[in-house]
Design goal:
mainly beta, 8 helices, disordered C terminus, rRNA processing, WD repeat-containing protein 75 second beta-propeller domain-containing protein, nucleus, WD repeat, Beta-prop_WDR75_2nd
């Protein structure tokens, strides 16, 4: 089983002492990457919930740079001490409450020993925790607590509470380890780190706007803060009165009556300066190691460098995503910036050149409500295990699911990142050919005030042995003014079909077969089809490509894609069809409908009749190429999830993957999953000896597993009795309108026995006309003629 797609940006990363490794919080684990290559080296596994804090034990001398120790804290309520060179877990401390943030001041203020068994009894941690007892009781009391813990014990007592807030807050510590603080609405609360058994003293700085981030100067009493309006505030000389010691207090009293420019509400600071360049909230603030420069960043995706004395600035623009963290390494020429699109950029300082990028799966785009549930934003290359995912900023990211690595990106529509921009273009669908060499995308430019609007269909082709796609063909308004509902590729040829809500579908072919060079290839329209002017909502090719199934609202039409001939029509479903997929060797056709009544139906293509159906809302369908196995991703009804008898089965999960075999309506296996809405599934068949199933959830996290392995069979289908309801076996098509046909064979047999004149039974080609693996149906005129001719008996003359 392979898990991936975790977020790299939930917490700040940290460099190793030699700056050769970068440690990143990734869900329940800590991933260790090489700073030279950007590849993952190892991981620290042991926490059972999200890791929220990562602290690398700093080296006090050059000889100690080989030390590879770190502390982690997690929502599972434990604090762990690691040797990440192994990796090896050295110590586990149970805090008994979820930890959202942690700092250990003595690691910064006192040199560490080289022996990994150094005395931890003197280590004191300040943690931001959540009082779970208040959460369980539904109390409105303050559940966020700042507490002081002594790490000498394996099971920590409650500890001293320094501050209570509505929710847990992130703790920021000064580089010298002398001060730490939190931001709370429009205030910054700062404590000093006491020596010996003294008590921490506290002071507060006030502002008129909500504060988003703040940082301490490495050597001086200076705090920088950024607010939601984009302003950067610099408080100088903070804590000279309230946090001063000994002789410092006497000097501070003499300064009380002095005018402190920019300081509000008698705050304990000498002055406050305001800078304003950012147009939106400031998320990132950090001083340089010498304190001469301040780095800030926010939603604009621009890193700004301020000269602290003069206020002059320079920029690293067009990073392409809002900034979340800026981290220095022990090596002054290396730093990292963390972006909201799940990317970590390693920067060469001071030029701020991006050396390399550690790429996770980018989050899904924000879609207007009218496109929710109708877009197909994930496609799979079955042979290589690569997924194409639509992301923010009109991009399609190519991601290797087997290696958990980003490969490349395709900018579907050119756009520079700007904060607060309204959505003007929506990438509604992405599709990959079976061999992964061709990609197709559809985009919609939304009209402004009812004016304008444009639908575009694009074909992209990749270089041999590469997943770098280049634009081959762009078609504007391929279906007049109507939107594109689906795209599907032919399994063996350079052919694709696009369906339209306007009532037609178009078959596209590449002229690369006729051209001598690939550079001259382009895609042209081969044929156009429609059925009673109904909206065409889904499409799929059969396994050998000889039949094209197109959903005309609530009926399924079967076509010959080469000759564009209508072969047959399957009976109507209850609601409009949104997804189609051939199963087995095209013996079955699986259809899914959403609203107003969701339905999953399986049709027998040889008998042109329904085999079975269930009342389930289906998010995705996939089928194996060389077997009759197919799988669906279903949303579990809320009523069923909340049932007392099923709570232990679903454990709060909202979806299920059901594995079926051919026409058998009983699922072979069922796996419950989280974040199923907007998810997708696909079989991966690059390794012929092993069939794998990939699931990508609505947040672009994924898992790849063997569906036939006993280890991945979470539960048998019997445990989910009632999930799919009772099988619907009602009449469909002709039978639902006119009733059952008479039994002609029985009637003819009775008539033959009652007559003296012998009859010779005629051939009935209509009984076997649909047999065969190619499903090459004859024209409707020939089919009807042979059908009625077979009903007319032919008699032989009797010679006396």
């Amino acid at each position: 089983m392979i898990r991936g797609g975790r977020s790299y940006v939930t917490s700040a990363p940290s460099f190793s002492n030699d700056a050769k490794k970068l440690l990143v919080c990734t869900g329940n684990t800590v991933s260790v990457f090489s700073a030279a290559t950007g590849l993952q080296i190892t991981s620290l596994e042991g926490h059972t919930a999200q890791v929220t804090t990562l602290i690398v034990v700093p080296a006090s001398s050059a000889a100690q740079k080989i030390l590879c120790y770190c502390w982690t804290a997690s929502l599972d309520g434990t604090i762990r001490h690691w040797d990440f060179s192994g990796p090896e877990l050295l110590q586990t401390i149970n805090a008994q409450v979820p930890i959202y943030s942690m700092v250990i001041p003595s690691l910064l203020s006192e040199p560490q020993q080289t022996d990994k068994r150094y005395d931890s009894s003197k280590l004191v941690a300040y943690v931001s925790v959540e009082d779970t007892s208040l959460v369980r009781e539904g109390s409105t009391e303050l559940r966020g607590h700042i507490r002081r813990f002594n790490l000498a014990k394996e099971r920590l007592p409650r500890g001293d509470t320094l501050k209570e807030t509505e929710e847990p807050k992130s703790i920021v510590i000064s580089p010298s380890g002398e001060f730490f603080g939190i931001r709370h609405k429009c205030k910054i609360h700062v404590w000093d780190v006491p020596s010996g058994g003294s008590v921490s003293k506290k002071m507060t700085l006030h502002h008129t706007k909500v504060i988003n981030a703040f940082a301490f100067h490495p050597t001086e009493r200076i705090i920088a803060a950024g607010d939601v309006t984009g302003r950067v505030l610099i408080w100088r000389g903070f804590g000279n009165r309230k946090l001063a010691l000994g002789s410092q207090k006497k000097n501070a009293r003499a300064m009380v009556d002095l005018d402190n420019p920019g300081v509000r509400d008698e705050d304990d600071a000498e002055s406050c300066t305001t800078w304003h360049w950012h147009s939106a909230e400031v998320n990132v603030l950090n001083f340089s190691s010498d304190g001469a420069y301040l780095y800030s960043g926010g939603r604009e995706g621009v890193l700004v460098v301020w000269q602290l004395d003069t206020g002059k600035k320079k920029f690293l623009p067009r990073i392409g995503s809002p900034l979340l963290y800026f981290i220095w390494s022990p090596e002054p020429t290396l730093s990292s910036v963390v972006c909201a699109d799940n990317q970590i950029h390693l920067l060469k300082m001071p030029s701020m050149e991006i050396l390399r990028t550690i790429s996770g799966i980018k989050p899904p785009p924000s879609l207007p409500k009218m496109y929710e549930g109708l877009s197909s934003t994930v496609a799979f290359d079955r042979s290589s295990g690569i997924a194409a995912l639509c992301t923010e900023n009109y991009c399609v990211q190519l991601y290797n699911l087997l290696n958990d690595r980003g490969i490349s990106e395709v900018q579907v529509c050119e756009r520079n990142h700007q904060p607060g921009d309204e959505i003007t273009v929506v990438v509604t669908a992405v599709a990959l050919s079976l061999d992964g060499s061709v990609m197709s995308t559809t985009e919609v430019k939304l009209p402004e005030d009812g004016i304008g609007g444009l639908v575009s269909l694009k074909f992209w082709e990749s270089e041999p042995d590469s997943k770098t796609f280049t634009l081959s063909t762009i078609v504007y308004e391929p279906h007049k003014d109507a939107g594109i509902s689906a795209i599907a590729f032919h399994p063996t040829r350079s052919m694709a079909v696009s369906t339209s809500f306007g009532g037609d579908f178009k078959i596209w072919v590449s002229n690369s077969d006729k051209s001598q060079t690939d550079k001259d290839s382009s895609w042209i329209c081969h044929a156009v089809g429609s059925y009673k002017k109904k909206p065409m909502t889904a499409a799929a090719f059969s396994g050998d490509g000889t039949v094209l199934a197109v959903a005309a609202e609530n009926v399924i039409t079967l076509w010959n894609p080469d000759k564009n001939i209508l072969l047959s029509v399957l009976g109507a479903t209850l609601t409009p069809i949104t997804k189609l997929c051939f199963a087995g060797k095209s013996e079955f056709l699986v259809a899914a409908s959403h609203f107003p009544k969701p339905e999953l139906s399986v049709w027998n293509t040889s008998k042109l009749s329904s085999s079975w159906s269930y009342g389930l809302r289906i998010e995705a369908i996939t089928s194996a190429l060389d077997s009759s196995t197919f799988a669906v991703l279903a949303l579990v009804p809320k009523i069923f999830r909340k049932s007392k008898s099923k709570k232990n089965v679903f454990r709060g999960r909202d979806g299920a993957i059901l594995l079926f075999n051919g026409s058998d309506p009983k699922p072979v296996s069922i796996w419950t999953v989280m974040k199923a809405e907007g998810g997708s599934i696909s079989f991966l068949e690059g390794d012929k000896s092993q069939l794998r199933l990939a699931y990508v959830n609505g947040s672009h996290e994924y898992v790849v597993f063997d569906p036939n392995s006993d280890e991945t069979h979470e539960r048998s289908a019997a445990d989910y009795e009632g999930l799919v309801g009772e099988e619907e076996t009602g009449d469909f098509g002709y039978t639902s309108m006119y009733g059952e046909l008479p039994d002609y064979d029985k009637k003819r047999k009775e008539d033959a026995e009652s007559l003296v004149t012998p009859f010779v039974s005629s051939e009935r080609p209509w009984e076997t006309i649909f047999s065969g693996s190619t499903l090459n149906f004859p024209p409707l005129q020939k089919l009807c003629g042979e059908f009625f001719e077979s009903l007319m008996e032919k008699s032989n003359s009797v010679v006396e």
